[in-house]
């Protein structure tokens, strides 16, 4: 398969020998791609071409290709002498099925120059192990030991490749109690004749902190109990449960031999920025305090030990840049295990994680990885990188290593391993949509025949330097360590030149990078030549700072701070690098805030008080879909696991989660129940690869979704089992179909409607899918319709609220009792005109609004006016003391109405706290949108003083009532 500069040589075929095959395609992330074509054949052979067996270059016999003379491979898709052996570079040996290259040339097609480094594919004899990813690789003598790895449950715990015999061997343990269970994402180092593996993800997604040692000579395992530091709630305690970390063996004459574990992901603490140490002699395990550049937590990075500089170089990874937004990193750091100090180095040209990085003769070679950093659509980043980068420690510079175009392997991959044997780099396995089990080999070139420009500018898989005295290019491994540690060893008076001149673009990039560093500690712990200007609080690419002269436009200069010891000590200064509540909370100088940020404890630093937040539940400890989705977590249905919202990539790096949710309604009905049971539609059930539909046989479409395959589970008769399709009649148990068709007989029964009887009829609510019931809306006679899912009523009278229209909206001045045939009324203040605007979307169900007013002045007539913008009816009633409510006006058009209630005909006012007369106004039978203006007034002759007092009060009342779409005027 080819697309642009990306190609996959391995034929992505699935072969089913049973006669049955289920192929399920899914995307484990929300990501849009262009799709693919698929074809299938019966009783055929592998082929690169869909329409022909054996790629058209052989004969198919019993499912196996017999290739033509010039082709090879299981699909006969490989030329035995590709590219005609690059013509004069070699010749084709047909009897050996390969090219015989000339003395200078290497590779399958003789296109690679040996002195510049070359790649080849190792083809072991005999049986190959099952492919895996995120395993470990360790070299002991002439053997490569592959331990663990994700293989979807098919691979063993340990495989051994014999470099000399070119064969694989499988280790079989006889005692399961003394053998670790399979795992991936762990780390391994070899010390003496023992391989130490730590952490990783075991079956069921369980992340562990186990330390095991495999004795290569005795072929036996030991579960090691470490001597850990005392534990308390205010500090991290090792060994941490971790996956996706790295472990590096540190060997130096000046320090004790130890294993350095860097970063990783913890189910409890999230992404880790910790450094852990294990001492082989004492078995002591500790989490060490580091200083230098404030590194952020990451997962799936690489860590490579350089014996020349005796430092660990940490590159890439999936890093936690902010509490809710982990992303890929292209940063490179060096870690000095003696000083426990971090330094920021030049960033790589691209970001990646789950790659490999290995030092080969003074040069760090980075291979493959997952470079996918897009969101919803592709911008060119590759899920499987086929890129090889080199990092030159001596020059702090990156370059791209050229890969051959003719290599009989799928180069692109991530999750692979790398190891060095006899000065060659071996790359094994990994993932490119399939688990790989192949071996790539890279052998570095030679420096001796390179000219001065080529010596300093090419990367032949080895670091070359120019020796002035003999005017020759030599490998850096021939330079003594005493000269290497001298920072001036390549000056004009020295014997060697190690780097080309620095380019202007590099200087400009360093200037920009320095200016983005915001504190002294970060500024002075880089390789970029930065210095901290304390008076300006800025980081500058200069060792001299400008300092303004007071009361003048002149400047003086001062030396920039370039040493960490010269930076001011600020407690809690590193709190910002902790991006989970649990990690922040165990830092003595830090506190987690309600804004989901880790900040310095307020008692230790100046600044406004931050609201402190207690940590919520840890997602990985939640064991059901319901309690998982109640928190800020993700539930994976097929794995039955709960993970943090930022941990999806770290938890399922190889697409192990087929279906996930953050929504409670998508959980199974009962805890422990199969996820299939949550599917109520046959079509939903069919889309889940592990589920099938068991029809109840009534011909109505009713059934149950059960876990099963092409053959039904024991609880379902075979004639009622549907795995790849659904019954034609889908009426949800509320109707049958006409003449065995898919058309439901109408009308549907059981208070349902719809083409498939999938909804409730108006006035009823519920979920009638698959035999569900519909229930009448209960709205206290103030509505007949409700939300179809919840039954919450659409109240038809403005001011009546509640799920069943059972209460008044007192906050907005509606009072009354809507139960027992009552209603709610807006209290109209005397002498004000109110405007009610019912034009919002939420007002669309209203057909009535009620008002009331009790004239307070006994000696003044009461004037009433109302205007309605659309057709509506109006009733006016009156209620007096000890008398029932009686009508005054019924069914009147309220478009524009005025009347006066004479003081001589009615008793107004209040006597002994008892209101004598109350008017009720009912406006009904309207359709929104509309507006209503209404008022009751008892005005005496005009009193100017009273007028201005009333008008001033208006502004305040309007501000209170604005949110109701109600306005008043005097």
Automatic annotation (TrEMBL):
InterPro entries in the cross-refs: Beta-prop_ATRN-MKLN-like, EGF, GBD_ATRN, Kelch-typ_b-propeller, Kelch_1, LE_dom, LMN_ATRN_NET-like_EGF, LZTR1/Attractin
Domain of life: Eukaryota
Residues of the Laminin EGF-like domain: 729-776
Any Gene Ontology CC annotation: membrane
Record's keyword annotation contains Disulfide bond: yes
UniProt membrane topology term: Single-pass membrane protein
Protein location: Membrane
Pfam families linked to this entry: Beta-prop_ATRN-LZTR1, EGF_laminin, EGF_LMN_ATRN, EGF_Teneurin, GBD_ATRN, PSI
Keyword field: Disulfide bond, EGF-like domain, Glycoprotein, Kelch repeat, Laminin EGF-like domain, Membrane, Repeat, Signal, Transmembrane, Transmembrane helix
GO biological process entries: animal organ development; system development
Chief location: membrane
Domain (EGF-like): residue spans on this chain: 77-111
Disulfides per UniProt: 101-110, 748-757, 760-774
CDD domains, alphabetized: EGF_Lam
PANTHER family per the UniProt record, alphabetical: DISTRACTED, ISOFORM B, LEUCINE-ZIPPER-LIKE TRANSCRIPTIONAL REGULATOR 1
Official protein name in the record: Attractin-like protein 1
